[in-house]
Design a protein that fits this description.
The protein is an all-alpha fold and 408 residues long. 73% of the residues lie in helices and 0% in strands.
Length: 408
C-alpha cells in the first residue's frame, strides 16, 4: 500500500526536478549588446571581490580610517535602498488604500525591491572589515539595542522576509503548487503591513546613521532632520524608479503584457507622477525649513553652496514642476524625463551626504578607486540578470494561471 502511494510522489518529484533544470537553461539571444557589455564587467567584478576577501578591503578600495564608508555604502546601500522604496509605496497604495488600478505593477515592483535589498545587503559584506561578524545581530552575540546600525540590520533582514512572502505566490504559481498559492496569498496583507512599518523605519534609519557624523558632513547637508528627509525622499525616489523601470520592462517584455495592461501603463505612470509631485513639494518645503533653521546663509556663496543650489533647484524643484506639468498635460514622455532627473537628484543627494560632503574640508578627499566602481557595476548588472531571468519564467508581468486566480 505504501509503495503504491510513494510511486506517484516520486514521479511528481522527478518531473518537478526536470522542470527546474529545464528552467535554468538560457532563453533568448545570448549575443546582445547588454550581454556583451555586462558579462566581462561581472566576471571582472567577481575577481575583484575574491581579491577583496583574500587580501583585505584596502587592496581594492581607497577607504581609510578617516573615511571608512565610501561608494559601496553611499551608492550601493544608501542610494539603492531609496530606489527600492517603490515597493512599500505601491503595496501601501494597492493593499491598504485599495487603489486597484495599480495592482498590475505590484509584483514587478516587489520583485525589484526584493532583489535590491538582497544585493545591497550583500554589498554590506564587502564593506565590513570582518564580514563574518555580520551574523552577530541575528544570533545575539553582543546585541547593540541602542545602535541605529543594529536596528537597520534587523529592519533589512525582516523586510527581505516580508517582501519574499509578498512575492511568494508568484513562485508557487510558477511551480504549480496550488495549495501553497492559497496559503501564501492569505499571508500577503499581513506581510504588506509588516513591510510598510519596517520600510518607514529603515528608510529614516539610514539617515539616522549619519547623525553621529555632525563634524564630518558639510553643514548644508547635515541636520537633525536627515532621517525625515531620507524617508520623504524615498517616496518619490522609489516611484521614479517604478516609472523608469516600468517604461523599460513595458518595451523589453511587451510580449508578456496583456493589451489591457499596455493601455493602463500611461494611466499608471500619470497617477504616479501626481504622487511624486506632491512628495517632492513636501520634501522641497522641508529642505527650505531646514536651511532657514540651520542659518547656513554664509555657505551659499561657495563652491559647495553652488552645488547645493544645483541639487535643490535643478534636481528637486525642476522635476517637481515637470511632474506637475506633465500630469496636467498628460505628457508621458515628460513624466519619464522627470523620473530620470529625479533619480539623478537622489543619487546626487545621497552621495553628497555620504561621500562628496563627507570630510569635505580634508586635505586629501576620498575618491573611489576604479575597482570600487567596477564592483558596483557588477552588482547592478548581476541584479538585472536575475531580474530578467525571473521575469522570463514567473508570472510577474503576465497574467497568473486561471486556477491561481480562482484560488485567491
Amino acid at each position: 500500500m505504501n509503495n503504491t502511494v510513494s510511486i506517484p510522489i516520486k514521479k511528481e518529484r522527478k518531473s518537478r526536478m526536470k522542470f527546474l533544470l529545464g528552467e535554468l537553461k538560457p532563453k533568448g539571444k545570448m549575443f546582445t549588446w547588454f550581454n556583451v557589455i555586462s558579462i566581462p564587467i561581472m566576471l571582472l567584478g567577481l575577481g575583484l571581490i575574491v581579491i577583496r576577501f583574500w587580501k583585505g578591503i584596502g587592496s581594492v578600495t581607497n577607504l581609510t580610517q578617516e573615511v571608512p564608508w565610501g561608494l559601496w555604502i553611499g551608492f550601493d546601500v544608501v542610494t539603492g535602498v531609496a530606489f527600492a522604496g517603490g515597493a512599500y509605496v505601491v503595496t501601501f497604495m494597492v493593499y491598504i488604500l485599495n487603489m486597484r488600478d495599480y495592482h498590475s505593477i505590484v509584483r514587478v515592483t516587489v520583485l525589484n525591491g526584493f532583489l535590491a535589498y538582497v544585493f545591497y545587503a550583500g554589498a554590506l559584506l564587502l564593506d565590513l572589515g570582518r564580514p563574518w561578524n555580520v551574523i552577530n545581530p541575528i544570533i545575539g552575540n553582543g546585541f547593540g539595542t541602542s545602535s541605529v546600525l543594529f536596528l537597520v540590520a534587523w529592519h533589512f533582514l525582516l523586510y527581505m522576509v516580508a517582501e519574499l512572502i509578498e512575492f511568494s505566490p508568484a513562485i508557487a504559481e510558477w511551480l504549480g503548487a496550488k495549495r501553497a498559492v492559497k496559503i501564501l496569498s492569505g499571508m500577503t496583507l499581513a506581510a504588506v503591513i509588516f513591510g510598510i512599518t519596517l520600510s518607514t523605519l529603515h528608510q529614516s534609519g539610514l539617515g539616522a546613521l549619519y547623525l553621529m557624523a555632525k563634524e564630518k558632513i558639510h553643514p548644508l547637508w547635515y541636520s537633525e532632520f536627515i532621517p525625515i528627509l531620507f524617508f520623504v525622499s524615498s517616496i518619490f525616489a522609489g516611484l521614479s524608479m517604478v516609472i523608469f523601470e516600468g517604461s523599460i520592462t513595458n518595451k523589453v517584455f511587451s510580449d508578456q503584457i496583456s493589451d489591457e495592461h499596455h493601455k493602463d501603463h500611461r494611466k499608471i505612470i500619470r497617477g504616479l507622477s501626481k504622487i511624486c509631485a506632491g512628495a517632492m513639494f513636501a520634501y522641497f518645503f522641508l529642505q527650505i525649513l531646514v536651511f532657514v533653521h540651520s542659518k547656513n546663509w554664509e555657505y551659499l556663496n561657495t563652491k559647495m553652496g553652488y552645488w547645493y543650489l544645483t541639487e535643490m533647484l535643478g534636481f528637486v524643484l525642476l522635476p517637481m514642476l515637470l511632474f506637475y506639468y506633465s500630469y496636467r498635460r498628460n505628457n508621458t514622455l515628460l513624466i519619464k524625463i522627470a523620473a530620470v532627473i529625479t533619480m539623478l537628484g537622489i543619487i546626487i543627494n545621497r552621495l553628497n551626504v555620504t561621500v562628496i560632503g563627507f570630510r569635505w574640508d580634508a586635505a586629501v578627499h576620498y575618491v573611489p578607486s576604479w575597482m570600487e566602481i567596477v564592483v558596483t557595476m557588477a552588482v547592478i548588472f548581476t541584479e538585472i540578470w536575475i531580474f530578467r531571468w525571473v521575469i522570463n519564467r514567473l508570472p510577474v508581468l503576465r497574467e497568473s494561471p486561471l486556477w491561481a486566480r480562482k484560488a485567491e
